[in-house]
Amino acid sequence: MVEFAGWAMPVSYPAGIIAEHTAVRSSVGIFDIGHMGLIKIDGEGALALIQEAATNDASKLAVSQCQYSVLCNEKGGVIDDILVYRLADYFMIVANASNAEKVLGWLRSLAGKTAVQPLDGHCMLSLQGPRAIAAAEKTLSVSLTNLKHNHTLSANGLVFSRTGYTGEDGVELIAAKKEAASLWDAFVQAGVQPCGLGARDTLRLEAGLPLYGHEYDEETTPLEAGYGWAVKFDKGDFIGREALLKEKNEGLRKKLVGIELASRAIPRQGNLVFDDQKAKIGVVTSGTFSPTLKKPVALAYLSPQTSPLTPLFVEIRGEKVPARLVDKTFVKRVK
Q1: What is the C-alpha to C-alpha distance for residues 286 and 118, in angstroms, rounded to an integer?
Q2: Identical fold between 2-206 and 254-335
Q3: C-alpha–C-alpha distance, residues 116 and 104, integer Å
């Protein structure tokens, strides 16, 4: 157990990180994501507030749909990356645990008379893996046949969604906090592997997905992180639009890429990246030993001009380790 954004969180369970990671890739694992910030936005101005604050176009959401979006400051830097849910009676934002209080305060500063409040009585669990849907249906006696990706479904007093953060299929459960422990126990007793922060990080990194504080911060834009598809310039004005539009027109300062190393040395956040002329061209944001690929991989911000053919070197403990540019989605899900 470790401190994480003010919460006590498990790095791993007795099976260990590799076993947890493998369970998600091959079958199903369950994650306690009760630390995520759940924020309810209610009332007549709810949609207008989200449209002003977030980069994606929430007006396109029908009831029971959700979308990935980004909250930016005026410079285009990322305050947080979020999920926006349109439920039957209100909008809900899922914020990162480390940013939950910041996001809540920031939204309230923009809200005027629109109600913005934490959903303190609820939390989330996440089933991830190719058998996630089947495990949820069997354990909870519920049909999720009609639950599409980026949609929600209400059943048995729970709200189910299908988004995911591992590169695999998955289903999230929004439940009353008083029910969360019994739900968790039911899945574990049904043979679903409990997974901690360690497996979450190796899985999301293999899928090339960003983590706030690593690939995102208030000096980094969603365009640099490769999430321009979640920035809808044609929806009207939003905070950061002018800066992001300028960046789009003038070119990126840096670009998030995938790197594969030629040795067993594991890259970590902050390791510098050099080209074959010994010029510093970037920095590692996240790195790990990939349990699936059996080799070290990393995400890094490099100069956008870096050629895929440029030999790279990552400085690890004073040694420059050979590396190469690869697709940042290191492991792709088998459909």
Answers
A1: 30
A2: no
A3: 7
pLDDT tens readout for residues 125-143: 999 999 999 999 999 999 9
- Amino acid, res. 97: A
Q: What angle do CA 119, 121, 123 make, to 5 degrees?
A: 75
User: CA 161, CA 126: separation in Å to the nearest integer?
Assistant: 9
Element at 313 (helix H, strand E):
strand 312-316
Q: Where are the alpha helices (DSSP H) in the chain?
A: 17-26, 46-53, 100-111, 132-140, 177-189, 197-206, 241-250
Domain ranges of the chain: 2-206, 254-335
Structure tokens at 246: 């300028």
Fold of 254-335: Elongation Factor Tu (Ef-tu); domain 3 (2.40.30)
CA distance 71 to 84: 11
Q: Is 122 within 8 Å of 43 (Cβ atoms)?
A: no
Q: What is the pLDDT of residues 63-89, one digit of tens each?
A: 999 999 999 999 999 999 999 999 999
Q: Which of 301, 304, 299 is nearest to 326 (CA)?
A: 299
Q: How far from each other are the two terminal CA atoms of the chain, in whole angstroms?
A: 34
3-state SS class at 103: helix
Distance CA 301, CA 63 (A): 37
* Whole-number pLDDT of residue 121: 94
Q: Distances from the Cα of 12 to the Cαs of 30, 63, 121, 175, 209, in angstroms?
A: 12, 36, 26, 23, 20
User: Could you name the CATH architecture of 2-206?
Assistant: 2-Layer Sandwich (3.30)
Number of H helices, E strands in the chain: 7, 19
Predicted confidence (pLDDT) at residue 333 exceeds the cutoff of 90: no
Distance CA 24, CA 28 (A): 5
Q: How far apart are CA 335 and CA 330, in angstroms?
A: 16
